[in-house]
């Protein structure tokens, strides 16, 4: 269970309220508002507030690029032009706030994106929940033999069982000892009246990196796209990618035109170096080019062939 | 006139629309939304969007500082505690977007605040309006004799008249020549079919620094308070201070508790150095302390006496 | 003349001093240190300090990506890999500080790059120099007919002469009136003892946007590359591009491997959208594809043909 | 031991090299360069590069505040003026780079300072060292009864012994299981040829938050002062405060005038709210003021009495 009964009730109460506003409002995102999308075994992502819509991007672009871009029919073209040519400031005019529950080792990657506002649950003040991320068996992968940062085949049989046991036992034991050292339970009730209890700011160090934390995380659309371009990418670690994918769904509801442009010109796009472009031009002119005469390293040639869908030529 | 008839009409149309939203909504700010507050002779400030309210600050603080801060009656106390102890991240959870029209020399000061999102009217793409800031006679001040960045007495008589004439004539002539060089009027219509017209990105260099520009400017509440603490301060140049004051009024409507805390703990607060604090403690103990034995420089002593409301002791 | 005699002397004095240091040091950049590279008619760029070198990028990457990347022969390969895959943080470990003299309208574009440290000459405190940018005749271009932000053919004959006269006369007259209103000369000497003189913070508003200002501008290598990718680009306005090009020369001296990687993978690179890549793959497979069946808009098709060096197919 | 023999050797080698430079150089900081200051049981801080000195602050301030601030004797006064009046940009002209080894739970606090450049050792790519922070007995404190984020009395006897045992055993066991799951030792050698070994990016989640990580951390002096004002403060958690204090020592060597100003006007300074200042003025005028008639809450009154060194009046 990712949400407590109390939290579910708070969300329902919040969703029941309606206000009148003059602000730009997006019905498709209002439908999702406050609702938690489950991610991993105990995590979630939920949108708790937003500012702006596709039209706010257009409005800002028009103040910058002035008169003559007024035809309503061109909104989509303008947003796609801005995305294609990396005119990023109009996208900064939209803002979104998420409430996220996530394992600490995922939070450590995520926080490296510096241009966001964050309020994280503090284990100096409060006691963390008794919840840890345990990978599902299909995500229990071996180290990749070819890629130092990647995953290889899924572990199986006794090795898989042993890993799952260790992860579960160590996280549980460490949490139990955390509570014992603090000498208070999750509600802050003292356990043994004869002991003082370790300071929370010290006790937390016994927790494992798969313990869950939570935070409010607020950013503008430009920086969110940057986050998603790195974290919804196939090279991102699975455990953060699933958060990025859940967030991408909320972006599709919120700013459908910008989200489409992002898919076409960023997520699905490739960059060719000066040398690679020259080779593509030669190939298009009918020349047969191989790695040897390409001037590219083997690694880069392999990357190029992959991009061009010619894996076999490598 | 700061707004064109077209703009006034657009604002009225926007204000007439109401949406239903689940988001936190602030009626007092909704009342002002889109409306332009006149500033200087042709400028304005208007709120065009916002996210969050006083409760959003409390919500974020509680995720950080955890259970046990739940009593609703303590919201005010919590916000004031956060402000007093410079716990700034909860204030970052609120966001506001302004549309501002302002002289270029004011924009040059303003843009130094880097943690905001900006889309400015571009004179590379568009033709600027024929509007320039001319100070009102009571703001036509001499250079201060004691303060290298300040103003002294108001100019009078022939000197004042001459300055106003020069400012008006030079700005007007330069604008006329700008239009002549571009060879197009404010609507982009070609003037003399026999001439090509200078590129806009070049022609703009003939404008004076009191020409008006405009932008969308969006920031979070923490950074807005930082901006206001510098620009609503008595040491700020009058021409930017009047913008800060107009924005402060919108903040009072938006987040009244946070705005009050800001007035008490930031705008009206003073900082005493270690040495100054030691002197105050000695004075409170009944000791008569003068500059000579204070260990402070004359300048710092004067600053301290001013802070303590003892101008005469200097 | 871009430098005063006093400045030239200060630079020579600074260049004459040598210190002993344990820090990474780059002889090729030391050779240039403090020297001013002239830009435009009165501007300059000069490097006044730096931190790090190509090896500092490698050092930071290795702390991140760990053991097993130690072979010295691979430094170049590692830096190029980082650039190609947009691993930007190791480039942030190098820092450079410039002293720049530039027209105000160029400064207004430049300052939009927010991740830099800036100290600008303040016309609230000081009197600006009597210098303004007047374009050379070969840069006096007409507005482009096809591109709303670009330049067309160079102006000629009477039109060119008139433009140059207006720019020169207006800037000069406005500067003269600025001095008259302040009632002090460039050295701060009072001119007419019978007048008070307008406050400097007000007088500056009479200056034109081609007046020169100066600043110290400090940034890390990653953000400098971002700046250069936008401002050394062919679409940048000529008047800022020449600064970017002068800075690019200092980067080549400073971090030659990173600068080469930047040229190949950023400056000379192109990005293909998901759709464009699909079209290139079809073309490489021998299919004849035209705009009609491409699914691209005319504008995007034109952009693709240009990238592929097939201008004629459009 | 905080440093391996290999690291000690690398540091000695680096310290043995001298280059000639034209850059501002600070002999007192050069003396420390690369040397590791031990912090906690296995951590360290060491300066690995720097840019600028006290004179660079003055140089930047003078470009901003112009002519007339030239007298060399006034450098100290100018820097202290800038600090006192929070003119922060000249301090941004100095930059420093640290190499730090620190427990993960300390790194999680530290990284919240967003305006720095960071390259952290990645446990996705590499295997972490077998080192964890175990508090010394005099730092093994109970939770404070009065302050939800603070420490109370030191634990003693059986309770202390039990806590130390748990911390040591849990961290060790979890590390051993981490190595077992990865199926490779710290040098990356495969342990059991019959097993695949879990991906590093997954295995790391079994580590405890007192495991040590390391990073390069680079920032400018203004942001470093902000970091130090929060983390060298008595309210900061001991485990991060000791790092801040070690860094403060390097700042004293590097920019002694700025460091002194920082001590006087920031670290040792207090801020009085508008209401508090009014009360101090009344007290100085001889009025006897108590909490009841002060208008302050009990909490604020207590804070004020503490600031004024009148703990007994509360």
Automatic annotation (TrEMBL), chains A, B, C, D:
Binds 4 FAD per tetramer. Each FAD binding site is formed by three monomers. FAD binds at residues 89, 112-114, 120, 220-222, 226. DUMP binds at residues 109-112, 120-124, 204, 231. InterPro entries: Thymidylate_synthase_ThyX, Thymidylate_synthase_ThyX_sf. Pathway: Pyrimidine metabolism; dTTP biosynthesis. Its cofactor is FAD. The active site is at 231 (involved in ionization of n3 of dump, leading to its activation). One of its GO terms (biological process) is methylation. CDD domains: ThyX. It catalyses: dUMP + (6R)-5,10-methylene-5,6,7,8-tetrahydrofolate + NADPH + H(+) = dTMP + (6S)-5,6,7,8-tetrahydrofolate + NADP(+). Its EC number is 2.1.1.148. Gene3D superfamilies: 3.30.1360.170. Keywords: FAD, Flavoprotein, Methyltransferase, NADP, Nucleotide biosynthesis, Transferase. Catalyzes the reductive methylation of 2'-deoxyuridine-5'-monophosphate (dUMP) to 2'-deoxythymidine-5'-monophosphate (dTMP) while utilizing 5,10-methylenetetrahydrofolate (mTHF) as the methyl donor, and NADPH and FADH(2) as the reductant. Belongs to the thymidylate synthase ThyX family. Homotetramer. This is Flavin-dependent thymidylate synthase.
């Amino acid at each position: 269970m990712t949400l407590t009964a109390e939290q579910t009730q708070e969300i329902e109460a919040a969703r029941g309220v309606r206000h009148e506003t003059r602000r730009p409002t997006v019905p498709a995102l209002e439908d999702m508002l406050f609702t938690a999308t489950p991610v991993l075994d105990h995590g979630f992502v939920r949108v708790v507030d937003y500012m702006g819509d596709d039209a706010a991007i257009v409005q800002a672009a028009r103040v910058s690029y002035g008169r003559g871009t007024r035809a309503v029919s061109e909104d989509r073209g303008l947003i796609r032009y801005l995305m294609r040519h990396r005119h990023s400031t109009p996208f900064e005019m939209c803002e979104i706030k998420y409430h996220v529950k996530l394992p600490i080792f995922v939070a450590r990657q995520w926080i490296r994106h510096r241009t966001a506002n964050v309020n994280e649950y503090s284990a100096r003040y409060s006691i963390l929940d008794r919840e840890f991320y345990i990978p599902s068996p299909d995500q229990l992968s071996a180290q990749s033999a070819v890629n130092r940062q990647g995953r290889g085949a899924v572990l199986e049989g006794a090795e898989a069982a042993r890993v799952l046991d260790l992860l579960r036992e160590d996280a549980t034991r460490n949490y139990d000892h955390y509570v014992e050292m603090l000498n208070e339970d999750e509600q802050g009730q003292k356990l043994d009246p004869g002991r003082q209890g370790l300071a929370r700011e010290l006790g937390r160090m016994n927790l494992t990196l798969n313990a869950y934390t939570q935070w409010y995380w607020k950013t503008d659309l430009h920086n969110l796209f940057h986050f998603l371009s790195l974290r919804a990418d196939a090279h991102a670690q699975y455990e953060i990618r699933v958060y990025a994918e859940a967030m991408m769904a909320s972006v599709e509801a919120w700013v459908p035109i910008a989200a489409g442009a992002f898919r076409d010109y960023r997520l699905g796009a490739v960059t060719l170096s000066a040398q690679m472009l020259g080779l593509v031009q030669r190939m298009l002119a009918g020349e047969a080019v191989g790695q040897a005469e390409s001037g590219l390293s083997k690694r880069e040639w392999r990357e190029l062939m992959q991009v061009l869908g010619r894996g076999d030529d490598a």
